[in-house]
Design brief:
44% of the residues lie in helices and 16% in strands. By secondary structure, it is of the alpha/beta class. Strand 1, helix 1 (19-34) and strand 2 form a beta-alpha-beta unit. Helix 1 packs parallel to helix 2 (50-56), helix 1 crosses helix 15 and helix 3 (76-94) packs across helix 4. It starts with 9 loop residues before the first strand and ends in a 16-residue tail after the last helix. Bound molecules: uridine-diphosphate-N-acetylglucosamine and uridine-5'-diphosphate. Uridine-5'-diphosphate binds at residues 19-20, 23, 182, 209, 211, 241, 267-268, 270, 273, 287-290, 293.
Amino acid sequence: MSTDASTMPVRAMLVLGTRPEAIKLAPLARAMAAGTQFEPVVVTTGQHREMLHQMLGMLGIDVRIALDVMRSRQRLSDLTARLVRELGEVLRAQRPDLVVVQGDTTTALAGALAAFYEKIPVAHVEAGLRTGVMDNPFPEELNRTLIGRIARWHFAPTATAARHLTDEGVAEEQVFTTGNTVIDNLLWVLAEGTGSSVFRTAAKRILVTLHRRENQGERMRGMGRALTRLAARGDVEIVLPLHKSPAVRDVLLPELEGHRGITLVEPLGYLDFAATLAECDLVLTDSGGIQEEAPSLSKPALVLRTTTERPEAVEAGAARLIGTDPEAIVSSAEQLLDDPVEYRKMASAGNPFGDGRAAARILAQLAEDFAADVPVGLTASGPYSTA
Ligand code: UD1
Ligand code: UDP
């Protein structure tokens, strides 16, 4: 149903459950709350607990409804079932004009699916990223692809992501290239300037994060060994904020705890993480968001994965996809630590992910569509037929 924008704000339900969703939806939540055209109804699913809660206040996200679905060592099927059921209840009670989901998490997929079941149109932020390998990243590649079948608006961060969607048959008028909201947030946070870096020494500073499901187990153990070899050089300081996942901690703690040159810390709040990233020399990560942030701060990123849905940074020369083999990790890192020419080449490659105005573009498009005479439906061509 369309809403008369001159009299009533559009009720937009923002569904988020994990750390990166909070970071990447925060600019939308803040912009909606600051204006009069939208009423943001933020629902946190609690897919993450500590790692989500530590973000919300500092990012200016005002939560309306908080679910608490997280269980320790949760299985994907249980998590998905709980999310769809509980979000369905929330949607039936709230009846928002649209649901906004972000990225490729289980929360995002469940939010889109529950909205579809309730015949509420879905806006997908960070749409169209693809590795082309359905089980890598697992299960995120499938999640994001499925949301691409459900969404009414596809907000693609880059032209490449937009093209993936139109190649899959999504109508061009439903796809919008906006930049990534992560850059909006990073610029906002750095302007606040209140975070503090974890690095303590003048050694070469390496910031590491590891958490992906497809890397857990033996592969992650090998990555841990590569880090101890780098630390053994004696001229580096490695900082690793440990993901809360027990599957990550089971492997990395025995491998890295107490090792000289390696500092393990609890997950950092975003202000401190941004400050730590700004102070590092080199990033080693399997994270999606950090692949986008590092080039914005001129930090070379080595991506410890076999695929990436963010090839733009690799193509620009700001990141390298080096895989998960410990030898390759050590030699690629050492090349950058020891060769200033190679280092400068990567550090100066630039950021292909946006200009910090993605949220404004997304809201402008939604406002235009809700203000139009044509009712907003589940598809661009008209309302969903209930006949
Ligand atoms: C999820 C996303 C992944 C994203 C990552 C961000 C899915 C399928 N995966 O993966 O795309 O990159 O979040 O970090 O949605 N846990 C805690 N406390 C917390 C958070 C998690 O104890 O604050 C535990 C959970 O109980 C669970 C494990 O960590 O057992 C993994 O969490 P889960 O959300 O299932 O997957 P992630 O690996 O975090
Ligand atoms: N991040 C953070 N504190 C940390 C580690 C990461 O704030 O200790 C931020 C980081 O800046 C990025 C986001 O979390 O914006 C990435 O989250 P994560 O790696 O968990 O998920 P992904 O991006 O891989 O989905």
